[in-house]
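Onboarding guide, step 5: your first structure request.
Type a short instruction followed by the sequence, for example:

Predict the 3D structure of this protein.
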Amino acid sequence: MRIIETHAAPSPRRVNIFLAEKGILVPREEINMMTDDLKSGDFAKLNPWHRVPVLVLDDGRTISETVAICRYFEEIQPDPPLFGVGAVGKAEVEMWNRRIELGLHSMVFSAFRHLHPKMAHLEVPQIPEWGEANKQKMPSELKRLDERLSESRFIAGEEYSIADITALVAIDFMKPARLGTPDAFSHVMRWHTEVSARPSARA
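The system replies with structure tokens like these:
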């Protein structure tokens, strides 16, 4: 078993934080998504969607997409649970993780991929207007998150979950993506300080 990744990229970081929380070690194979051609050669055969990370199982089967990889490891090692406990708990984690993915996470990465010149070869075509539109929507999404965190220790409730991982990676990526930082949102910053202090955040 191995994971093919670009270690510094946000999506592999989500998986790496998840695995660190679980205490699971998986060998890594590094591929530079900025210079290597993900659309040709052996990698394209492993993942026709041309994205990292990709989990290659011992029998040669592959799993791509961040949450799918995390769900695989949740199944083989349920503790600590990062997708919730019980019917309601699991549904709440799913709900909040999707809200973050479709909201803030999507906005941050759409802005980055459509506005940063170094992403032009990966995002074809780049549409600067779409990048700017997502950039302008981020404050309202951060406000929603701030309101949620004013009443909850973590995003999906009182326990740390994959929803926190998704949000942490998105917010941390705002700075290198030149999108600023959420300093004006006090509850987001309280939460961010706490989750950033977890050893897994450095994975």
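Each response can be followed by summary notes, for example: The CA atoms of residues 114 and 127 lie 5 Å apart.
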